Amino acid sequence: GSSLLTGPEGLMAKERENLKRLKCLRRYRQRYGVEALLHRQLKERRMLATDGAAQQAHTTRSSQRCLAFVDDVRCTNQSLPMTRHCLTHICQDTNQTLFKPCQGSEEVPCNKPVPVSLSEDPCCPLHLRLPPQMYVPEQVLAVPEELEAAPTDLYLSAAELQPTESLPLEFSD
């Protein structure tokens, strides 16, 4: 509506006041001057912090190598995300709490890193202790030979099972 009413000559005082308010409301949330510049810089910093920096950190972190040394030679494996050690040397990091070394057995010690679980002493699959067997098969009972050679005259044939006379549906005592 402001393009049709280009000048204040055709408007009454009340209409001019309403037009002024309308223009103010249109730019009510817009920032001007120093405030606009600071707001734009803040938005750019946030974009870098969320998108660009996250992608950059991911690419640099994924290309980093493990910091562990084995026989004075640095490990060549890639480090785990958000850590400085690979999976085989993660237990050397004293600040991590997600992995523990496998306790192994008395005969074969094992220091393989195992994720911490709900169990008290996590073990690798090689040293995992299985629970006792829950299913115990039943012993087969031997059938006496007397029962096996039962006479067949005790059993009725299908013809003998057919009723010969019609019985009432209800039986009375």
Automatic annotation (TrEMBL):
<keyword id="KW-0539">Nucleus</keyword>
<dbReference type="Pfam" id="PF13891">
    <property type="entry name" value="zf-C3HC3H_KANSL2"/>
</dbReference>
<dbReference type="GO" id="GO:0005634">
    <property type="term" value="C:nucleus"/>
</dbReference>
<feature type="domain" description="KANL2-like probable zinc-finger">
    <location>
        <begin position="72"/>
        <end position="127"/>
    </location>
</feature>
<dbReference type="InterPro" id="IPR026316">
    <property type="entry name" value="NSL2"/>
</dbReference>
<protein>
    <recommendedName>
        <fullName>KAT8 regulatory NSL complex subunit 2</fullName>
    </recommendedName>
</protein>
<keyword id="KW-1017">Isopeptide bond</keyword>
<keyword id="KW-0496">Mitochondrion</keyword>
<dbReference type="GO" id="GO:0006325">
    <property type="term" value="P:chromatin organization"/>
</dbReference>
<keyword id="KW-0156">Chromatin regulator</keyword>
<dbReference type="GO" id="GO:0005739">
    <property type="term" value="C:mitochondrion"/>
</dbReference>
<dbReference type="InterPro" id="IPR025927">
    <property type="entry name" value="Znf_KANL2-like"/>
</dbReference>
<keyword id="KW-0597">Phosphoprotein</keyword>
<comment type="function">
    <text>Non-catalytic component of the NSL histone acetyltransferase complex, a multiprotein complex that mediates histone H4 acetylation at 'Lys-5'- and 'Lys-8' (H4K5ac and H4K8ac) at transcription start sites and promotes transcription initiation. Required for NSL complex stability and for transcription of intraciliary transport genes in both ciliated and non-ciliated cells by regulating histone H4 acetylation at 'Lys-5'- and 'Lys-12' (H4K5ac and H4K12ac). This is necessary for cilium assembly in ciliated cells and for organization of the microtubule cytoskeleton in non-ciliated cells.</text>
</comment>
<keyword id="KW-0832">Ubl conjugation</keyword>
<comment type="subunit">
    <text>Component of the NSL complex at least composed of KAT8/MOF, KANSL1, KANSL2, KANSL3, MCRS1, PHF20, OGT1/OGT, WDR5 and HCFC1.</text>
</comment>
<dbReference type="GO" id="GO:0044545">
    <property type="term" value="C:NSL complex"/>
</dbReference>
